[in-house]
Amino acid sequence: MTDATINFDDEREAGFGDYFSLLKPRVMSLVVFTALAGLFVAPGEIHPFVAFFSILCIAIGGGASGALNMWYDADIDRVMKRTAKRPIPAGKVEAGEALAIGLTLSGFSVVMLGLASNWVAAGLLAFTIFFYAVVYTMWLKRSTPQNIVIGGAAGAFPPMIGWAAVTGDITLASTLMFMLTFMWTPPHFWALALFMNSDYDKAKVPMLTVTHGKRVTRAHILVYTFALVLTAFALFLTPLAGWSYLVVAVVMNGAFLKGAWDIYRRDEVQAEADKYKVERYVFKLSLAYLFLHFTALMVDKVLRDFGIGGPF
């Protein structure tokens, strides 16, 4: 009786929410925010309508990547507890539909961004979609424990795309915004993997926690956090960052580094005893980390516009 009920629910007609879920709205929100930050702090002028449409195209491109990812990873998603209710494994959306939506939105977003702003930004968006859907999803995710490290580049491009939409180029400042997100990604996901490891193990995804164990993963989190801290302060040395950014960088990097050190010092007996309390805290802290750094860059841009500059 229970199985019959589940089948009945799964076979209902897909609604707007099911199709929207294909676009990974939570991931898209990060893409939109960091792209907006890159566009906002970039030197030069851009018409408000062009700015809005550029961010919309970047959001659509990010959503297209999500749809392509869900299409290809449907077999993995069915096994993992946290993804089993996604539209395809839940039987709400056909895999072919997801593929068609992903390809259509990919082409639309790239072409329209090129026409609205410039082809440098459009080219970066096209490469980002390709990198996430093909390089990460189809290759890295299933083949190497460094999947998150290298694949993290896909999520790091949006601020660079936003910058390019205004300037039409790639600079040291935009590259450092890319690097901030790139270095943030491994400790962010590995902290999650420490307390969600069984999901990756069941799906046979070679996450570092699965292939090398949690002790090695803890050490990697600490190493990459050091690299992240160095990147964060390197960005302060550019004209983009001022005193607001410095305050955020000192506080957040100090807290994140302490969290990474606490994770490194713990063993699995301690972690399981308190239900991975520290690891969950660091994961939540990582969500605020990126938001506050990019927000501080935008605040400093406003202050500069009012003649209140930073040290550089």
TrEMBL record:
Q: Name one Pfam family in it.
A: UbiA
The record's PROSITE patterns line, in alphabetical order, gives: UBIA (PS00943)
The listed locations are: Cell membrane
Regions that span the bilayer: 27-43, 49-72, 93-113, 119-140, 147-166, 172-195, 216-237, 243-261, 281-299
UniProt keyword terms in alphabetical order:
Cell membrane, Heme biosynthesis, Membrane, Oxidoreductase, Transferase, Transmembrane, Transmembrane helix
Q: Which GO molecular function annotations are given, in alphabetical order?
A: oxidoreductase activity; protoheme IX farnesyltransferase activity
What is the protein's major site of localization?
A: membrane
For this record, an example GO cellular component is: plasma membrane
Quick one: which pathway? Answer: Porphyrin-containing compound metabolism; heme O biosynthesis; heme O from protoheme: step 1/1
Q: What is its EC number?
A: 2.5.1.141
**Catalytic activity, reaction form:** heme b + (2E,6E)-farnesyl diphosphate + H2O = Fe(II)-heme o + diphosphate
Does the record carry Transferase as a key word? yes
Gene Ontology biological process terms in this record:
heme O biosynthetic process
Q: Has keyword Transmembrane?
A: yes
Membrane topology term reads: Multi-pass membrane protein
Role: Converts heme B (protoheme IX) to heme O by substitution of the vinyl group on carbon 2 of heme B porphyrin ring with a hydroxyethyl farnesyl side group.
Cite any additional comment in the entry: Carbon 2 of the heme B porphyrin ring is defined according to the Fischer nomenclature.
**HAMAP family, per the entry:** CyoE_CtaB
Quaternary state and interactors: Interacts with CtaA.
Would you identify the family this protein belongs to, as annotated? Belongs to the UbiA prenyltransferase family. Protoheme IX farnesyltransferase subfamily.
Protein name (record): Protoheme IX farnesyltransferase
